[in-house]
Specification:
The complex is a heterodimer of chains A (about 220) and B (about 55). Chain A is built from 10 helices and no strands. Chain A is an all-alpha fold and about 220 residues long. Chain B has one domain (about 1-55). The chains are: A mainly alpha (about 220), B mainly alpha (about 55). The interface of A and B includes residues 29, 114, 133 and 164 of A.
Chain lengths: ~220, ~55
């Protein structure tokens, strides 16, 4: 064995930089899949700079994308652990905060999936982002996450069903809120209509009109 | 009988939604990949490389 082999195999700075620049779009996409918009750019930049500083340890011919994703994933894990310790958030509160922080220009559906992702435990989120969003294999993802392939599979499957549950829960909540406001609007209209009728009608019919409007409000299909 | 039919329908529904979620995750990822690299990234690398050259 030639002890100098490792040195010979590492890329020159210029070549390394060129490879790194090519992968910036993927670093950003991975970061945006697992972190909120306000943190994702920093996460991608930090990972890029960590990769640059660690360039001597990269060996030419090995999977560069996997190597750089491992750096981002490890950095995200340590940030997530720190964040978890400093503020153990109520999932419901976290959910609402994350939705409010998101890009208002994004379509509601996309925004929903993105923000629901952020409610998942970070290890499930990382596994689903690598397999489901970046399209990596279970094997590659296992190498990046430093765990067994079976662990990746179960994380991805748990992440998928949890994501579905979160989105369903939100849909029902939103529907319930819409119904409440619709029935309130209907009641207001009926009350106003009743008040107008009161002015025009003889005194004895007032009670009957109000009662009728209440009955109508209650039996409305919106209510 | 009715119950098993309902379960199958629910399962199909879940599978359909799972597919939709998967497609959205892929779409989100692809959208960011397509974006231009922010200047900041290149500037940071240039700076690091120049510091190394000094």
């Amino acid at each position: 064995m030639n002890p100098a082999a490792g040195v010979v195999l590492s890329l020159g700075d210029a070549a390394f930089k060129a490879e790194l620049v090519k992968l910036i779009p993927h670093l950003r996409a991975f970061a945006f899949s697992i972190a909120r918009s306000s943190d994702a750019e920093d996460l991608a930049q930090d990972a890029m700079m960590r990769a640059w500083r660690a360039r001597a340890s990269y060996q030419t011919g090995t999977n560069f994308k996997a190597w750089i994703f491992t750096i981002l994933r490890n950095h995200h894990t340590s940030l997530a652990r720190r964040a978890w310790r400093s503020r153990p958030l109520d999932p419901e509160v976290a959910e609402n905060t994350l939705v409010a922080n998101d890009d208002p220009m994004a379509s509601e559906e996309l925004l929903d999936v993105r923000s629901a992702m952020l409610v998942l435990p970070f290890d499930q989120r990382q596994a689903l982002a690598l397999v489901g969003a970046a399209g990596l294999s279970y094997k590659e993802t296992a190498a990046i996450c430093g765990c067994a392939e079976g662990t990746v599979k179960s994380r991805v499957s748990r992440a998928r069903s949890e994501l579905l549950a979160i989105l369903e829960h939100r849909k029902h909540k939103r529907r319930a809120q819409t119904n409440v406001s619709a029935s309130r609007a209907f009641e207001t209209i009926m009350a106003e209509a009743a008040a107008m009728q009161v002015k025009d009608q003889p005194r004895r019919n007032v009670q009957a009109t109000l009662t009728l409007s209440r009955v109508r409000a209650r039996s409305s299909p919106l209510g | 009988m009715i119950k098993s039919e309902t379960t199958t329908r629910e399962q199909r529904n879940d599978q359909r939604r799972q597919k939709l979620i998967g497609a959205r995750l892929k779409h989100l990822y692809a959208e960011v990949v397509e974006e231009a690299i922010p200047d900041e990234f290149i500037a940071l690398l240039e700076k690091a490389q120049q510091q190394r050259a000094k």
